[in-house]
Amino acid sequence: MSATVKTTGPEKKPNDRSLPLMTEEQVVLVTPLDEELGVMEKMEAHRQGRLHRAFSIFLFDTHGKMLLQRRSEQKYHFPGLWTNACCSHPKPGEALLAGAARRLTEELGISVPLQLRGNVIYRFYDPVSGLTEHELDYVLTGCTDGPLHPDPLQISELRWLSLEELKQEIECYPGRFTPWFRHIMKVFPVWNG
Description:
The protein is of the alpha+beta class. The protein has four helices and ten strands; from the N terminus they run E-E-E-H-E-E-E-E-H-E-E-E-H-H.
């Protein structure tokens, strides 16, 4: 049986970690071999569908269940869909594991050791936003039993699913999940249980 937690947030204070940043975020543009080509403003890279460096974090509990997050309706693309625990982009000059640790703290309020499993390249167009997610995505895994402190601006719900529950739900309702999550689950051995 899966457990679901809906996130609601208290009123935000000016120094709160979940307030949107007023600066433009940049992503690192790369070749398929991860050779850096330069940097670009994040939204522009998604408008142009430029290949950029990213990471996807898959978290498991001690019972082998995977943590899923439902993306906030405020997300700029693929809002409201279920996906892996955390995904984002390292900042220019930021080491991959440092960026992943930063985003785990920002999105889930946790710090856990992560293991690099490899990478995949994908390209998915979101017809609602008109943006394209074209990433060289490094897949990382870790283990936690919480407690979790999700940022409601990033995450609307959390839940833990077994492999069997997850496979069945993806098969029955594929449109409820982000395309990169479905792709990684199909081609990459992330299961840690």
